[in-house]
Design goal:
CATH class of the largest domain: Alpha Beta
CATH architecture of the largest domain: 3-Layer(aba) Sandwich
Number of domains: 3
Structural class: alpha/beta
Shape: elongated
Number of helices: 10
């Protein structure tokens, strides 16, 4: 037996409206066309689905059961069609993003300002945070993180090229105290460290040698959770600090900081925009993805 799926959709409307005329109005067809469709469906199934009177329409027991079983599928199909139509709509609404504080390229003024200008109906709500959490459960549309800490079930798009972490200091500090020739010597130097919170152990500085990664637990004389302050302190000669090369690039270009231990600072996969693995992406997020791809 081959059943016309369109007839099931018509039947679902009749069941919802309890009216042939109302169903016909929603479909943009005549009442007679709806009545004939239901009659053909009943003939195909060999059982009455609808009880008709001059004043009302009700479902038989078989009709109630059929409607109960097909209603979820009909709702899913309507939702899928609605989502598909939305893909062609204008980007609009609140776009919530959770972004790592060291994602310099993404957080640069020109990148986000360009997106905002091109999409005036999208309101950006950006939380800059280095905490690792479930962005979906927290109600965010997308996040920006280093690739190594993104969950495997997410869609991830690279924001820029490979990144690396660097140890840096001011030229005056180098000239006065010298610099280590190997990361293992860092414990003998004044260092400026980072930690995300007051009750968390300072971040261990990560290096590599001969293809093998290792970390060094420096004993920082100054510790903070603010990269901007770390840079200011390093420029002022307070010690050696460590972080993403992009964070130091401007100060290095001005000659305020110099990189050290570069032979032990390999490149690795950089930052990614990531979002839930869904077939339908909202226009506001799609606009951000396309903006990113144009700037890549």
């Amino acid at each position: 037996m081959e059943t016309d799926l369109n007839a099931l959709a018509v039947f679902a409307l009749v069941a919802e409206e309890r009216s042939f005329r109302a169903a016909a109005d929603r479909l943009g067809v005549t009442r007679s066309a709806v009545s004939q469709t239901i009659r053909r469906l009943e003939e195909t199934l060999g059982i009455a689905l609808v009880q008709r009177t001059t004043r009302s329409v009700s479902l038989t027991e078989a009709g109630e059961r059929l409607h109960r079983e097909i209603a979820p599928a009909i709702a899913d199909m309507r939702a899928a069609l609605g989502n598909t139509e939305a893909l062609g709509g204008r980007p609009r609404g609140l776009l919530r993003l959770a972004v790592s504080s060291i994602a310099e390229h993404f957080l640069s003024g020109p990148f986000l300002a360009g997106f905002a200008e091109a999409n005036p109906e999208v309101q950006l709500d950006i939380t800059v945070t280095d905490a690792e959490f479930d962005i979906v459960a927290a109600g965010y549309d997308a996040g920006v993180r280093l690739g190594e800490v993104i969950e495997q079930d997410m869609i991830a798009l690279p924001i820029a090229g490979d990144e690396r972490q660097l140890a840096v200091c001011a030229p005056a500090f180098r000239d006065r105290f010298g610099v280590p020739s190997h990361p293992s010597e860092l414990a003998s130097f004044r260092c400026i460290g980072w930690r995300p919170g007051p009750n968390v152990t300072p971040y261990r500085w990560e290096f590599a040698e001969g293809g093998k990664e290792f970390s060094v637990a420096v004993a920082p004389e100054i510790t903070t959770n603010d990269m901007a302050l770390m840079i200011k302190l390093a420029v002022a000669g307070a010690g050696i600090t460590f972080g993403m090369e992009a964070s130091f690039r401007a100060a290095i270009a001005r000659g305020e900081l110099v990189p050290i231990l570069e032979d032990y600072c390999p490149f690795f996969a950089g930052f990614y925009l990531y979002y839930p693995s869904r077939r339908n992406v909202a226009p506001k997020l799609r606009a951000l993805i396309e903006h990113l791809q144009r700037r890549a």
